[in-house]
Amino acid sequence: MIDNPYYRHEFHGDYELISIGRLELEEGGVIPDCQLAVATFGTLNAEKDNAILVTTWYSGTHQIFRDVYIGPERALNPEKYFIVVVNQIGNGLSTSPHNASGANVSIAMSKFPHVRIGDDVVAQERLLREHFGIEQLELVVGGSMGAQQTYEWMVRYPARLKRAAPIAGTAQNTPHDFLYTKALVEAITSDPGFNGGEYSSNADVVDGLKRHAGIWAVMGFSTEFWKQEVWQALGFDTKEAFMEGFLEPYFTAMDPNDLLCMAWKWQHGDVTRHTGGDLAAALGRNTAVTRVMPINEDMFFPVRDCEAEQKLTPRSELRVIDDVLGHLALFGVAPTYIGQVDKYLNELLADS
Amino acid sequence: MIDNPYYRHEFHGDYELISIGRLELEEGGVIPDCQLAVATFGTLNAEKDNAILVTTWYSGTHQIFRDVYIGPERALNPEKYFIVVVNQIGNGLSTSPHNASGANVSIAMSKFPHVRIGDDVVAQERLLREHFGIEQLELVVGGSMGAQQTYEWMVRYPARLKRAAPIAGTAQNTPHDFLYTKALVEAITSDPGFNGGEYSSNADVVDGLKRHAGIWAVMGFSTEFWKQEVWQALGFDTKEAFMEGFLEPYFTAMDPNDLLCMAWKWQHGDVTRHTGGDLAAALGRNTAVTRVMPINEDMFFPVRDCEAEQKLTPRSELRVIDDVLGHLALFGVAPTYIGQVDKYLNELLADS
User: Is B144 in the active site?
Assistant: First the structure.
């Protein structure tokens, strides 16, 4: 176990660690005591039918949803809904390589087992049912890897959700995306300080984490983000200052094994595991009213990939978010971003 | 000096090494004896007005032009034109870090000075004039870094070329492109075997070169190339086999310092050095009839970047090449690729 300050409450604000017990994983491993970091907003009504599940993306936590996506003026309105943000396994707040200790000491660091998107969704379903008594969701929504989890809900538990909104992500990871993630992984594991996953601090792997940030710079934002110098709006004078002041610190603060756990999960996201490789059959299970919401400038979840899946998904419609930031528009930096998300989610929440 | 078999005549076929003497470089360094590897096709006529200059791209040599772009049935027809392909400085055939010896021993390996696109163009102009007596070019054409050189010709020596065709490249490198190249560079230099550029064989840097190939896989081809499994047309059964059988061997055979020399040059390509940073003024110098030819699926020289420059270029028209391979369509693998290039170049060569 490593005490990494990035993952402390001081940095991430209030959340609750809830154990769902032993979790047997699809790949054969086990998390002896799976703890999910959960942040809730609003109040569950007596009928327990006003719940919204929010899933998290690669490197993300509940924090960005609290700060950007959730509020009384937002579609994700805690005055109306009980919003449950569940941090994904391996994200550093829920059970993860770097924090595995106590009952989980056998899976610490490099010994952490492979986790799949399906494992997260099984864990979330158990959490919602056993801990909150929630069996029906008004909406499941998430971006990027959060979209992967949303699609997994649509295919695995179609009767359990009324609506779904996968943002900037796919149901079946694409080969290009696999290669992109591979480059991210290799940037980290090639650092001699990584030491096969048995480093003593994330600072040992700072060079690899910086290269990982450098590859994110190429794919995470759009070519126009850089050309139009949109980073100026974030208060930086040069692209180098933006890298050194924003993207590098963002990733170098994180735990390498945690990122690798999520990267493997991202690479292997695939709802067709339920249907013998048949994507149309998998997506055909969906019964939720759905909005598929890609971002027009996304370099690695391009609109056409998302649209191809949308066309296979019953009860779905496509809503394209316009944002020059590209994939990392998800951060909600552009003033026009969250308005689009709210518009499409409000429309969805009014639909049934 | 390293004897790397990839750069031998056995592999690259016939070319001539021609010394243009001492070359003072824009960045302040010097190549004491600058030798250019030159392959020619066809015959220079008595008037010396049927010459075409072909410039090379990152990692490329004259070989691909000989094998794909030049032929009696092609626009680059050696029965009509005298075609001079000049390998760029640092590409491993012309004077380069790995082959610097004799008079160039002082700039071997890590001591090789920074070379700019302008240095190549100055060297090419001197070669053409002093060695071949060519003062007027029917056409300058090149792809990617070859397009950078083409633009440099258009801006630096506007009276010397009648026509120009920059393919899949820009006059002023974009910030996104700079970051992409930075990721490529770091993949190589982070390999402990790189040893600050003083390795004894490219094999010492094989891990870094493989990571470099892995990043090319993400950006060099399009997302659709991978999704549609276009690599099957190249005889591979899986994307992994394609990587291991094609893209990795392609790059691991090359010299790391040579690639880094070209990468620095690519990153810093900028015709506005002639006009105090004014792109419109620089491109406004052009007098050649020009076709700007981006590739529609290019991930890092996207059409809109090329089109923005085309609009600033007098006497130019845009011709977009349709090819799912993306940037590496330049290899000419798709059967429909070279036909488009020929069509647009024939149209250009008939124009005046």
Answer: yes
For chain B, domain boundaries: 5-173+270-349, 178-262
B182 Cβ under 8 Å from any chain A Cβ:
yes
Residue B276 CB-half CA count within 13 A:
0
Contacts of B238 (CB under 8 A, 6+ apart): none
E strands along chain A, which residues?
Answer: 16-19, 23-24, 30-31, 35-41, 51-55, 82-86, 139-143, 163-167, 289-292, 316-318
A172 phi, psi to nearest 5 deg = -125, 115
Nearest-angstrom CA–CA distance, B260 and B112: 10
In this complex, which of B190, B227, B305 lies closest to A176 when CB atoms are compared? Answer: B227
CATH architecture of A178-262: Orthogonal Bundle (1.10)
Answer yes or no: do A214 and B179 touch at CB < 8 A: yes
Residue B29 has, within 13 A of its CA and on its CB side, a CA count of 15
Q: Is A144 a catalytic residue?
A: yes
Residues contacting B264, CB < 8 A, separation 6+: B114, B115, B185
Choosing from B144, B177, B270, B305, the catalytic residue is B144
Mean of the per-residue pLDDT values for chain B? Answer: 97
Q: Which pTM does this prediction carry?
A: 0.97
A59, A94, A96, A144: the active-site residue: A144
Chain A contact set for B207 (CB, 8 A)? 190
Q: Are A138 and A345 in contact (CB under 8 A)?
A: no
pLDDT digits (tens, 9 = 90+) for A17-54: 999 999 999 999 999 999 999 999 999 999 999 999 99
* Domain A5-173+270-349 shares a fold with domain A178-262: no
Closest CA to B270 of B108, B56, B78, B117: B117
The rounded distance, in Å, linking the Cα atoms of B143 and B163 is: 15
B302 touches chain A (CB under 8 A): yes
What DSSP element (H or E) covers A10?
Answer: helix A9-12
Of B175, B190, B239, the CB nearest to A227: B175
pLDDT mean over B293-313: 98
Would the CB atoms of A229 and B175 count as touching at under 8 Å? yes
Give the model confidence (pLDDT) of A117-161 as tens digits.
Answer: 999 999 999 999 999 999 999 999 999 999 999 999 999 999 999
> What CATH number should be reported for the domain whose range is B5-173+270-349?
3.40.50.1820
List CB contacts (< 8 A) between B300 and chain A: 223
Report in angstroms the alpha-carbon separations of A67 from A5, A72, A76, A235, B177.
Answer: 20, 12, 12, 19, 32
Annotation says A131 is catalytic: no
Tokens read off for B273: 């050095």
Residue A287: phi and psi, rounded to 5, are -125, -5
Length of chain B: 352
> What would the two tokens of residue A16 be?
């609750």
Whole-number Cα distances in Å, B293 to B288, B300, B327? 15, 14, 12
Three-state DSSP at A290 gives strand
